[in-house]
Amino acid sequence: MEPSPKQSAPSLLSPVRIGVVDAPNRVLMAPLTRCRAPDHVPTALMAEYYAQRASAGLIIAEATMAIAGGSAFNNEPGIHTADQVKGWRGVTDRVHAAGGRIFLQLWHGGRTCHPLLNAGRQPIAPSAIAITSNPFRGPDGPVPHAMPRAVEDSEIPSLVAGFAAATRNARDAGFDGVEIHGANGYLIDQFTRDGSNQRAGAYGGPASHRIRFACEVVEAACAAWEPGRVGLRISPLGSGNSMIDSDPVNTFTLLAKEISRLGIAYLHVLRADFVGVQKADVLTPLRSAFSGILVANMGYTPGEADQAVASGIVDAVAFGRAFLANPDLPERIRVGAVLNAANEQTFYGGGAVGYTDYPCLTQGQRDAALQGAP
Predict the structure, then answer these.
(1) Which active-site residues does the annotation give?
(2) DSSP letter (8 states) at residue 148
(3) Which ranges of the chain have pLDDT less than 50?
(4) CA gyration radius, the chain
């Protein structure tokens, strides 16, 4: 018997199956808060923005309010009303018509929410601990974060049910799946890490209790749709929004093991702390703990991302700023073209400028890149 041919290592541009989705490449678009949804309703401009980026292996749309009254930005979208579902349907129809695939990131800000944006309502959190590391981005400028109230155990089932309802709404809006936002110091992350969760009882104390809320939300989303259409994003080392954990590797390895049993589409990991306060190798233990598709994010160049995929440490890489400024990012990577620079002044709020006006490659630029010209 002749030996079977040796399979070549995957590359950043090779196809991959992510849950139920067949992705043509492993260049994913990371969720990016852009604050261009007046009254929290997605618009035609947002549909154009996402459709422009349909060549991504998978688009993960921006953080979207799963439950009413959870606004932590100004003009971020929601998915809890009929108008919001209709608005998002306009987005998904455009993306699918352009040949793309798109998940919706479901989110609750927890203590990052503010009474200024929520009719005076006090934010909730696992413990009554306010954010002090950075100010709140208010509609009229920076202000201090509000002191949250500790949510009661009896309220948690309704929060979980809210994520399940949002999952069903995302399905009705035409998405291919959902990503549960368990990162960046928002409500699920606040429960998971011991710097923000100092409660006792079923949802506080040891890591096995602190991960319970995240596991219940993910499990509810799987039951509302199917596991192959659900992902989870985590940021074990992120220190923004006054976040820290005394043992992030152990905490998030335990979480990865628990959700691995559910057979979800992917685990999306921010591999580092943007400001470098906490440092550790989280990808290696998470790769061992999680049996499904592992997606990494934060600071990758195309070359480093390709090497990471080829090595097997991750299965795909999500790009944020690079995709924001380069709607044709996979093609630019393929031909080795120079990337557009992102305009930070237009990241949050505004109109088409710095949103839908970033240029794609011209044929001349494509040919020059293939020939190695600067």
Answers:
(1) 186
(2) P
(3) 1-5
(4) 20
